[in-house]
């Protein structure tokens, strides 16, 4: 498949937009400017007619028409328009030097204009080429009520005005062309700047896809692209952490599987070879049984987590007494409590707290949290369990220990699968790092959440919520 450059596509979009805008704007401006230009020329001819009217009035009173001819010549040269004076019969009486003197004594061909000036109106017309005017002409009539004269007609060649418009349009088109080139250059630079971060992220994605999760992109802006870059770096960091967690998990699980399997194989081989006396075989078989139970718990946790992450958790919901469930799980931890000489203190909001949920999965949540609390508590430590009702028909369950605590950095990932905080590794030799991940997935299946607050050296507090049963 042929690769299409995003820079090229964006450039084409910019150029297309610019061309459309230029064409639309140019069309509108050409119409508006042409109308304005023609109106301006009409106004100029009207002003010329007013001057001729004043000059004719002065000449008529003094009887000196030579001065009038001179002024007509000056005005004609200055304005570039010929001047005709017509009497009430529509006969051309006087013409400026630039016009054919043969017009004098002839009937003005546009009687509607003559009638207009007779009524005292200023009139205008764009004529076609006629025997009177060899080219299309703009004629503006100005009323004149002196003696036999009824009007002054200023005549200007349309091709001359169109030539002026054409020259102005040429200058405008040249200006637009240079502006267009400048806009294309700016568009190219802008496209490059906008697409460069995307290209960098594309290259970084290829590096990450090859297995190097340390690759990051440089963030140079605070707009949407900068936000995308930050999200990309966050994704890369998460992938790096997940990869590290995966490798650590494989190492931990390999150790957890190898150790019991090795001991089981050794004990069974010894018993088969007769190395272990018959009277001691029951003791070694008991060790083998405990190791199989340990392996079973590990595989069960992995299966539960896999089901949870594939959204295949099926809840068997019912109403049950949360207090009784907590007491039952505390009793199950009696061997670990005795081993550490630790104590669990439970404070319940009511004597009976009925909640709604899957009792087996909530029991697993409580068991994992209590087990962790005991595991990381010091010898002779105190674990506090407390329930609190809220106004939103929820009950909050708090499990607090006074152990080593969790660092702020580890708290970000404590609920990720297979994650084990560095400070807990030596104390959690038999853990796989999936207990808290299972807790979170089971609670999310109930549409509930869990939070952790911890200070290193002072302990940790886990709080999760459950829905109260209907009364």
Structure description:
This protein has eleven helices and twelve strands. Helix 1 (6-62) runs antiparallel to helix 2, helix 5 packs antiparallel against helix 6 (278-309) and helix 7 crosses helix 9. By secondary structure, it is an alpha+beta fold. The chain is 56% helix and 17% strand. The longest helix is centred in the first third of the chain and has 57 residues, at 6-62. The strands form two sheets. Strands 6, 7, 8, 9, 10, 11 and 12 form a seven-stranded mixed β-sheet that branches. The protein has a five-stranded antiparallel β-sheet with strand order 2-1-5-4-3, sandwiched between helices. The relative contact order is 0.07. The radius of gyration is 50 Å and the shape is rod-shaped. It has helices at 6-62, 65-79, 111-118, 158-209, 224-273, 278-309, 322-332, 334-340, 359-375, 408-411, 435-445; strands at 82-87, 92-95, 123-127, 137-146, 149-157, 317-321, 343-347, 354-358, 382-389, 394-400, 450-455, 459-468. The model has no long low-confidence stretch (mean pLDDT 80). The two termini are 64 Å apart.
* Helix residue percentage: 55-70%
Number of helices: 11
Largest sheet data = 7 strands, mixed
What sequence of helices (H) and strands (E) makes up the elements?
HHEEHEEEHHHEHHEEHEEHHEE
Percentage beta strand: 15-25%
The coarse overall form would be rod-shaped
Rg, nearest Å:
50 Å
Provide mean pLDDT, rounded: 80
Query: Which structural class is indicated by helix and strand composition?
Result: alpha+beta
Number of strands: 12
Question: Low-confidence parts, pLDDT < 50 over ≥5 residues?
Answer: none
Cα distance, first to last residue?
64 Å
């Amino acid at each position: 498949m042929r690769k299409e450059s995003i820079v090229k596509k964006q450039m084409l979009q910019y150029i297309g937009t610019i061309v459309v805008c230029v064409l639309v704007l140019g069309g509108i401006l050409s119409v508006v400017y042409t109308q304005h230009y023609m109106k301006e020329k009409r106004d100029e001819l009207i002003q010329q007619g007013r001057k001729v009217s004043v000059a004719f009035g002065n000449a008529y009173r003094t009887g000196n028409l030579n001065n009038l001819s001179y002024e007509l010549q000056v005005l004609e040269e200055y304005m570039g328009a010929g001047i005709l004076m017509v009497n009430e019969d529509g006969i051309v009486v006087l013409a400026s030097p630039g016009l054919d003197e043969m017009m004098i004594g002839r009937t003005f061909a546009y009687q509607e204009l003559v009638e207009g000036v007779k009524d005292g109106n200023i009139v205008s017309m764009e004529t076609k080429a006629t025997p009177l005017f060899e080219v299309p002409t703009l004629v503006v009539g100005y009323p004149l009520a002196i003696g036999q004269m009824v009007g002054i007609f200023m005549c200007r060649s349309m091709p001359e005005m169109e030539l002026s418009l054409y020259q102005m349009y040429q200058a405008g088109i040249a200006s637009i062309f240079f502006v267009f080139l400048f806009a294309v250059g700016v568009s190219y630079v802008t496209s490059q700047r906008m697409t460069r971060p995307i290209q960098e992220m594309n290259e970084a994605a290829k590096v990450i896809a090859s297995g190097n999760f340390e690759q990051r992109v440089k963030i140079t802006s605070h707009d949407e692209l900068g936000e995308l870059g930050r999200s990309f770096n966050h994704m890369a960091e998460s992938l790096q952490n997940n990869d590290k967690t995966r490798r650590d998990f494989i190492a931990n699980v390999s150790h957890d599987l190898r150790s019991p399997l090795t001991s089981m194989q050794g004990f069974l081989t010894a018993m088969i070879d007769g190395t272990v006396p018959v009277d001691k075989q029951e003791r070694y078989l008991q060790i083998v049984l405990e190791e199989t139970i340990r392996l079973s718990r590990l595989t069960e946790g992995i299966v539960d987590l896999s089901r949870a992450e594939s959204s295949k958790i099926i809840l068997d919901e019912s109403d049950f007494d949360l207090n009784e469930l907590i007491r039952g799980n505390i009793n199950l931890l009696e061997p670990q409590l005795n081993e550490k000489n630790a104590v669990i203190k439970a404070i319940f909001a009511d004597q009976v707290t009925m909640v709604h949920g899957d009792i087996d999965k909530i029991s697993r949540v409580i068991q994992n949290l209590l087990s962790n609390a005991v595991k990381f508590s010091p010898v002779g430590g105190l674990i506090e369990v407390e329930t609190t009702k809220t106004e939103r028909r929820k009950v909050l369950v708090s499990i607090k220990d006074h152990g080593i605590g969790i660092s702020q950095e580890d708290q970000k990932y404590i609920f990720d699968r297979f994650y084990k905080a560095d400070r807990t590794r030596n104390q959690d030799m038999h853990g796989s790092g999936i207990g808290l991940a299972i807790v979170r997935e089971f609670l999310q299946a109930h549409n509930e959440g869990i939070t952790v607050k911890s200070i290193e050296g002072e302990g940790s507090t886990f709080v999760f919520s459950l829905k109260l049963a209907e009364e």
